[in-house]
Amino acid sequence: MADDLCFLAKDSIIIKPPKRNPLVLRMVVLIFVMVCGVYICSVCLKQIGGRSTGRLLSVQVIGKPCEATDIEPSEKPYLHFPKPKTFSREECACNPVRYFAILSTQRSGSGWFETLLNSHMNISSNGEIFSVKPRRSNISTIVETLDKLYNLDFLTSASKNECTAAVGLKWMLNQAEILARYKPTINTTLLIPNLKQVDDLVTKSLEYFKSTRHIILYYEDVIKNRTKLVDVQDFLMVPKMDLKSRQVKIHKGSLSSQVENWEDVKKTLKGTHYESYLNEDYKL
Ligand SMILES: *[C@@H]1O[C@H](CO)[C@@H](O)[C@H](O)[C@H]1NC(C)=O
Ligand SMILES: *[C@@H]1O[C@H](CO)[C@@H](O)[C@H](O)[C@H]1NC(C)=O
Ligand SMILES: *[C@@H]1O[C@H](CO)[C@@H](O)[C@H](O)[C@H]1NC(C)=O
Ligand SMILES: *[C@@H]1O[C@H](CO)[C@@H](O)[C@H](O)[C@H]1NC(C)=O
């Protein structure tokens, strides 16, 4: 429970303004790569797979294995039938579950996006579970935590009483840069290099996960176009619902009033291909 609180506290950091370039990270940035199948960490999969062969094989013979119906053969590798230790899935036992991960940068609206996901009765998105240090201290603890999560034994406020059809977590690509300060002055010398750095980070991540089934979402698109959330539900193969968030935007008003040296920032971005970030088209 302490861990949960910790995670909540951490999660809320995301809505605070960052120390530097809020501009960069808030409106700009971007990306949720959602990864189906735990390929976020192929090592983990191997370990999980390795463990369940042999020793558990005789156990599986007892229960009739679940068969997913109406599923394309190419989709089958992504389906799982977890058997949680902490509770019985009972009537949900043969409802397939998909695993996902949200890869994101700070200030990209991923916390809000998660609340939207969690408003779906069949989706459980558990936030930055690796913000708790002991869980990421070595590969064994990471695997153990992922095992627990994907086996539905990781109980958080995101856990569902309904049948879970998609379970996942959030991972920050730039974890080290969580620092907050109200109304920052943006160092305009560093602004373009910073934007470029975030671009590169995202490009690299996409390269790394390109062979994994994924969907890319931009904050601005989710704001502007609610049909994007239909795409997400299609991706997770859950029944389509109207997703809602009770998260309140804490920084209201124009961008220009939130940045100490807005005029300098404007001057710096004018004429570059980041100029569109000056627009306020992301307003709720
Ligand atoms: C991993 O970390 C945990 C907790 O910090 C510790 O108990 C365990 O011995 C470590 N395992 C390895 C293989 O280092
Ligand atoms: C979603 O949850 C409901 C309620 O538990 C369940 O009846 C339904 O089968 C679930 N849908 C999926 C796709 O698992
Ligand atoms: C901006 O950052 C550069 C490099 O770190 C530094 O040399 C410069 O003094 C900073 N400018 C301001 C106004 O803080
Ligand atoms: C909204 O997104 C859908 C796909 O997600 C796309 O087909 C449609 O053209 C978009 N609408 C607007 C107004 O951008």
TrEMBL record:
- InterPro entries named among the record's database cross-references: Nod_factor_sulfotransferase (IPR052796), P-loop_NTPase (IPR027417)
Query: Which UniProt keywords are listed?
Result: Membrane, Transmembrane, Transmembrane helix
Signal: present as a keyword of the record? no
UniProt superkingdom = Eukaryota
- The transmembrane segments are 23-45
The name of this protein is Sulfotransferase
